[in-house]
Amino acid sequence: MILHIVRCFEDENVVHVEGSIDPLRDVEIIEQELLFADLDAVEKRITMLSKKARGNDKDAKEQLVVAEALMEHIGENNPVSTFADIESDGFLAMNKDLRLLTSKEIMYGANVDEDGLSEDNEFVKILKDYAVERGYEVIKLCAKVEEEMVDFEEDEKEEMLADLGVTESGLDQIIHKGFAKLGLQSYFTAGVKEVRAWTIRKGITAPKAAAVIHNDFEKGFIRAEVIAYDDFIEFNGEAGAKDAGKNRLEGKEYIVQDGDVMHFRFNV
Fold first, then answer.
1. φ/ψ of residue 263, rounded to 5
2. Would you say 149 and 169 are in contact if contact means Cβ atoms under 8 Å apart?
3. Residue 131 CA to chain centroid, in angstroms?
4. Smallest Cα–Cα separation from 189: which of 220, 153, 217, 154?
């Protein structure tokens, strides 16, 4: 995913490199640069595939057809994400190496001043309209406020955000909405010495989730002890949740939920 921070505030003391504030112009400049980078990458790949295809490499021939069609697509100022054959085996094989920039999810961060956090200014409205047309996400943040909150305690952050008329910091929005866009979630392991979050894809089973800790956990998976996040918090940790009957055993088919607190039993 690409997070594109876009200036959406006026301040005569903060000079813009282009001399004026125009979020759409700024977005188009960056997106054009991303297209040029992808075009260069595909051109180089075509050169390599052409040599292999002349040597009668079947896979290279198939990828070459896709690459040439893709180069034409990008050359018409279209992002890779709108390419008709984006699900084809040839494209997927090629993009596994290239990781083309305009094939990625995009999220815009509208960087506003403090007044712009509680109510959308005209710049933010323009950016949101542009994003809606393309199916992209927009979050609002104030870089100045984010910088000020770096060393704040949690209660201090909440108080400052409340004074500004918002409930969530820009960083938290990036994490939450970025995870949602990418189809990701977290589960926790909680021990005496540390609590740790593990990132997984949504919809995977407990053994697959265990594998992100160590492959042996998946191979020897027996079952998982699970406490829902809300129960873990409400009953003040593992002991309280167990006393309240909120601890449960789940097998190999269990689909891990966001925030689950898990302890894996395995044998190898």
1. -130, 120
2. yes
3. 16
4. 217
252 in the same domain as 193: yes
> Same domain, yes or no, for 141 and 11?
yes
Are residues 97 and 122 part of one domain? yes
Helix (H) / strand (E) element for 4: namely strand 2-7
SS3 of residue 262 by DSSP: strand
Q: Are 100 and 86 in contact (CB under 8 A)?
A: no
pLDDT tens-digit readout, 86-126: 998 889 989 999 999 999 989 999 999 999 999 999 999 99
- Whether the CB-CB separation of 112 and 8 falls below 8 Å is answered with yes
Residue 41 maps to which CATH number? 1.10.150.300
Euclidean distance between CA atoms 134 and 11, whole angstroms: 29
Token output for 246: 């909120």
In this structure, what DSSP letter does residue 117 have?
A: T
Answer for the pair 190, 237: CB distance below 8 angstroms, yes or no.
yes
Q: What is the span of the domain harbouring residue 221?
A: 184-266
Cut 0.85: pTM above it: no
Tokens of 231: 């129960």
Q: Assign residue 230 a region: left if phi > 0, alpha if psi is -120 to 50, beta otherwise?
A: alpha
